[in-house]
Amino acid sequence: MVIALDGPAASGKGTLARLISEHYGFAHLDTGTLYRGVAWLVLSENADPTDPVLATNAARTFEIEKLADADIRTKEVGAAASVVAANSDVRSALLDFQRRFALKPPQNAVGAVLDGRDIGTVVCPDATVKFFVTASPKTRAHRRWLELVSGRPELQEAEIYKDLLERDARDAARDDAPMAAADDAELLDTTHLSIDAAFAAARRVIDGVFRRCG
Ligand code: CDP
Ligand code: CDP
After folding, report:
1. Which residues form the Cytidylate kinase domain (predicted)?
2. Pocket test for ligand 1, best of 143, 147, 167, 191 (most atoms within 8 A of CB)
3. In this structure, which residue's CA is closest to atom 17 in ligand 2?
């Protein structure tokens, strides 16, 4: 059983993925962590994320376990992640790990849930259930601002909004594995949904598919 969740930044896909994994006992992989990790490695060497050789080397030597103390949730790392993510060599260096996770989830979990931008289209095109999660840009910027402002009170919501739009545009326009809804993905707009309501809607879809699969 593989559940794929894709969508733009702060649409709520990670929260849904976590709740789904807890509810169904599935292993969860936030694939954005991989791209953020590669970007963090590049930035921590004061290097330029647009340098394709440095980014590719970082992706090839990357180990997710070593990220424990790295602050990868900043908006700077998010922006650099979408730059390194446009590099095909970076993407192919990270692909195997994601596919292995889906095929053979850790701790013998009965299934896997992966969230990102290209899970339903490229990483797991045969996923059992696929979602494309969205929300209006204003709502997403507000959510992300609420998350970041406590640690950085100087952050302006307008700045976060601009960053999100730039990142969405870069993620959707790249040639390799652009952010896109798979043809068979269920669209879930969370703009006016609480986390509980979004989770209930996702569960209805998943339970329906599981019933049909027996
Ligand atoms: O993973 P992604 O970037 O798509 O978003 P997330 O980390 O799941 O959610 C971003 C923020 O929005 C978190 O603080 C969630 O608690 C919040 N959220 C929300 O307020 N309402 C929802 N329906 C979903 C998420
Ligand atoms: O949490 P948020 O939605 O803000 O971003 P993320 O999921 O942590 O992803 C950070 C960046 O990594 C995205 O803007 C994409 O450029 C890239 N990414 C990707 O290209 N493919 C994925 N499967 C996951 C993330």
Report:
1. 3-197
2. 143
3. 82
Contacts (Cβ under 8 Å, ≥6 apart) of 174:
85, 86
The size of the chain, in residues, is 214
Q: Is the ipTM of this complex over 0.90?
A: yes
Q: Are strands 2-6 and 27-30 parallel, antiparallel or unpaired?
A: unpaired
Tell me which residue range forms the domain holding 193. 2-213
- Distance between Cα 85 and ligand 2 center (Å): 8
What pTM was computed for the model? 0.97
Domains contained in the chain, number: 1
Q: Which residues line ligand 1 (CB under 6 A)?
A: 7, 9-15, 143, 147, 190, 193-195, 198
Q: pLDDT tens track of the chain, all 214 residues?
A: 999 999 999 999 999 999 999 999 999 999 999 999 999 999 999 889 999 999 999 999 988 888 888 899 999 999 999 999 999 999 999 999 999 999 999 999 999 999 999 999 999 999 999 999 999 999 999 999 999 998 899 999 999 999 999 999 999 999 999 999 999 999 999 999 999 999 999 999 999 999 998 7
Question: Which residues, 6+ apart, have CB-to-CB distance to 35 below 8 Å?
Answer: 81, 82, 84, 85, 90, 94
